[in-house]
Amino acid sequence: MYIVTAEEMYEIDRYAIKKGGIEGKILMDNAGSQVAQRIVQTYDTNRKMAIVAGGGNNGGDGFVIARYLAEYGYEVTVFQLVADHKIKGDAAFHKQCWLNTSDKLTHVTDSHQLKQRLVDFDVVIDAILGIGVSGAIREPIRSMIDVINHLPIEKISVDIPSGLPANDGIHVDQVIQANKTYIIEAPKETAFCEDTSIYYGEWETVKIGIPQTAYVKHSSKKRWCKKYVRATFPKRDKYAHKGSNGRGLVIGGQLTMPGAIVLAARAALRSGAGLITVATVKENIPIVSSSCIEATYHLLPNLTNRLTDRDLEAFEKIDAIAVGMGIGREDSQLLSDLIEKLDKPLLIDADGLYHAKPLLEPLLQHKAPVVITPHYGEMAMLTDKTVPEVKRSPFSISRQFAEKHQLYVVLKGKYTVITAPDGEQIVSDQGNAGLAKGGTGDVLSGILLTMVMQHKELLSALANGCYLHGKSADYLVEEDHTERDLLATDVIEGLSQVFRTLS
Ligand SMILES: NC(=O)C1=CN([C@@H]2O[C@H](COP(=O)(O)OP(=O)(O)OC[C@H]3O[C@@H](n4cnc5c(N)ncnc54)[C@H](O)[C@@H]3O)[C@@H](O)[C@H]2O)[C@@H](O)CC1
Ligand SMILES: [K+]
User: Which positions in this protein are listed as binding AMP (predicted)?
Assistant: First the structure.
C-alpha cells in the first residue's frame, strides 16, 4: 500500500485522468459510490444521514455519496456550507446530479444554524475539506467543525478528517474528530503521524480506479505488509554454512548495561545469523555467555579506547557491525575508529547515536552503508530539534537527514519510518504498546543486523526487520502475553512464529 503527500495524490489523479483517460467526474463518482457502499455495510437504512459539503472536490464526493445513499433507501440531506459560486467543475456537475433527483439541499452559513439542523440526524458525513486545505481554518468553517465535534453523533470523514492536512509537519488547527474515515485510494502521511492519526478514527481505503503505475511513478512511500516481506525475504540456501548466513559483530555493554548486548546478540542469532561475536569488556563476558552460549566473544579492555591492530584484524572477517547498545555516553574513540578503519556496514543504535552526532562528516565518507535507529528523543538530539517537532514531521525530518548525511534512518515509534539515502520511505506499523519497554530497541538492532547481512537491498532489509519485530510482539499479545507483561526477551522467542508465517 502506498502512502502519499497531497502533491503526490494530485499528480496521481492527473496521471489517471491524462494517461489513463478516466475523467475526473468518473473518479469522483467512483469515490462517492465506494464510500456509500461501505456506509451501507455498516449502518441500517433507518439512520438519518446528514452530509456537510464544502466548496472543493471533497464536497463533490459528498454530493455523490448523497445520491448513492438515497438510492440505497436512506433519508439524506446535504448541508452546503459555502456559497453556490464556490462550487465548480466536477463538484458542480455532481451537485447538479443530486439536485436533478432531490430537493434535499440546505444552505447553512453559520455554526449556530448548523448545530440546530444537525441535532435531528444520526450520522454526519464530513465532506467539508479534503487534501486541498491550506493555512489556518477560516470562519465560518472553523466554528462549524467545532460544532460537529461536540455533537453526540457518529462522524464519518471522506478522504481525510476536515481541517487536517495530508502532509506531515503542518501545525494542526481545527479538525473533525472522526469515528471513521474512508480514505480515497491511498492513505496520506498524517494517517501515520502519532499526533494526527488519532483524528482519522478507524480508517480504510476505497479504490476508485487509479492505475498502479500512477503510484509507481509518483509516490515515494509504502506501508510495509506481509506481501512485501514475502517478495523480498531471502530464501535460506539449502547448502548454506554458518559463514554464508552472515558473521555479525555486536559492540557495546558497559558494566552497568550488559543486558543490551545479550538481547541484541540473541535476537541476531534467532533471526538467522550464522555467527555472532560480541565485543565487550571482560566483566560482562560471563554474564553474556551464560545467556547466549551460541555467540563468540571478543575482549575489549574498555569501550572508550582506540581499536588496536588485533581488534581490527579480528573484525576484518565480519560482514556487518551493530554498535552502541549499552555503550554509555562517556567520550570514546571507538566509533570513529569503526568508521575510519573498517569498511563494514554499520548499524548505530542507542548511546552510539550520541557518539555519532559529532561524526556525521566522517560517516558521510564511510564506504559501506550506515544505518541509524533513533527513537524520537534520539532523533531530536541528532537534528537539534524538539521531540514534538520530530513527532509532527517524522517523514520530512527523516528524509532531510537521510539525504543530507547519506545514511539509512529507522525512526522508531508506533509508526516506524524507514528512510533510504535517496529519500524513499517505508512505514512499518506492526507491533503494539507492549514494545514500549526497555530492551526492545536492542532486540530490534540485533534483528536488523542479521537482515542487513542477508539482504541485497537494504531498505527492504530494514523494513523486514521491523516487520519481524512488530509481528512477533503482535502474535505474542494475541496469544500468551498481554501488552503489560511482554518483555524484550519474549519478542526474541516469538520470532520463530513469525518466520513460520513467511514460508
Ligand atoms: N480527481 C480528483 O482530484 C479527485 C479528488 N477527490 C476529492 O477531492 C479532494 C481534493 O479536492 P480539492 O483540491 O478541491 O480540495 P478540497 O476539497 O480540500 O477543497 C479545497 C477548498 O477548500 C477551501 N479551503 C482550503 N483551505 C481552507 C481553510 N484553511 N479554511 C477554509 N477553507 C479552506 C478552499 O476554498 C479550497 O478551494 C480530495 O480530498 C478528495 O476527497 C476525489 O473526488 C477523487 C478524485
Ligand atoms: K473531509
Answer: 412-416, 441
Q: Are 498 and 472 in contact (CB under 8 A)?
A: yes
Q: C-alpha cell of 43? A: 449502518
> In the numeric block, which cell numbers belong to residue 320?
556487518
Respond yes or no on whether the N-terminal peptide bond of residue 140 is cis (omega within 30° of 0).
yes
259 is in an annotated binding site: no
371 vs 360: CA distance, rounded Å = 12
DSSP 394-420: HHHHHHHHHHHHT-EEEEBSSSEEEE-
CATH for the stretch 6-219:
3.40.50.10260
- Is residue 472 within 8 A of residue 497, CB to CB? The reply is yes
**Residue 227: how many CB atoms within 10 A of its CB?**
9
- Beta strand 425-428 with 416-419 is antiparallel
What ipTM does the predicted assembly reach?
Answer: 0.98
The Å distance, Cα 162 to ligand 2 centre, comes to 4
**265 neighbors 292 (Cβ within 8 angstroms):** yes
* Distance, first Cα to last Cα, the chain: 22
Q: Of all protein residues, whose CA lies closest to atom 23 belonging to ligand 1?
A: 133
Residue 38, pLDDT score: 97
Cα distances (Å, whole numbers) of residue 422 to 14, 152, 249, 404, 418:
25, 46, 27, 9, 12
Does ligand 1 come within 6 angstroms of the Cβ of 184? Answer: yes
Give the residue, out of 28, 88, 129, 134, with the most ligand 1 atoms within 8 A of its beta carbon, to mutate for a pocket test.
129
- Identify the pLDDT of residue 305: 87
Query: Distance (Å, rounded) from C-alpha 412 to C-alpha 329?
Result: 20
- Residue 265 annotated as lining a ligand binding site: no
CATH topology of domain 226-502: UDP-N-acetylmuramoyl-L-alanine:D-glutamate ligase (3.40.1190)
pTM of the model: 0.95
pLDDT in tens, 239-281: 777 677 899 999 998 888 889 999 999 999 999 999 999 999 9
Distance of alpha carbon 477 from the chain centroid:
21
State if residue 137 touches ligand 1 by the CB under 6 angstroms criterion: yes
Task: Give per-residue pLDDT as tens, 434-493.
Answer: 999 999 999 999 999 999 999 999 999 999 999 999 999 999 999 999 999 999 999 999
133 is in an annotated binding site: yes
Tell me the domain boundaries of the chain: 6-219, 226-502
> What average pLDDT does this structure show over 41-59?
97
Pick from 447, 492, 459: nearest CA to 473: 492
